[in-house]
Amino acid sequence: MPDPANAGASQPDGNAPGAAASSSGFAGGSSPDQISTDTAFDAALVESALRLAASGGWRGVSVARAAREASLSLVTARTRFPSRISILTRLGQYADQAVLAELPADGPVRDRLFDLLMRRIDAFQHHRGGVIAVLRALPFEPATALMLACATR
Fold this sequence. Notes:
Elements: H1 32-56, H2 63-69, H3 74-80, H4 84-100, H5 109-125, H6 128-137, H7 142-151
Helix pairs in contact: 1-2, 1-4, 1-6, 4-5
């Protein structure tokens, strides 16, 4: 009898077929294969959650719904993302990694800081609709706003 918690997952590792790794993904695990698998899984779940947020608002997003929409293992999703806040934290990590991948080496501090800020904005452009949905929901979710403020210190 199939496990309902894994419904929709077509691979034993919990990844959807064809789930691609994000070039700015955050990886856990210890082996290169595990890192690649974790990165692809996380990128697919974050992508799914932000797509759902863009189409229906952040308040309608859950880890379980994002996992179902991306055909990912619910068990793995709940283990790696215990809450919606962890999705946003991972998105922030992706943006940080994209920005820090190519630090400007020379030039005035003001120009380097401007470049870093613009890179961060560019990193969120791919998920613009989802990010806007999150920002619109934050005034109605003070706990989420507080958790994000603490996570980005």
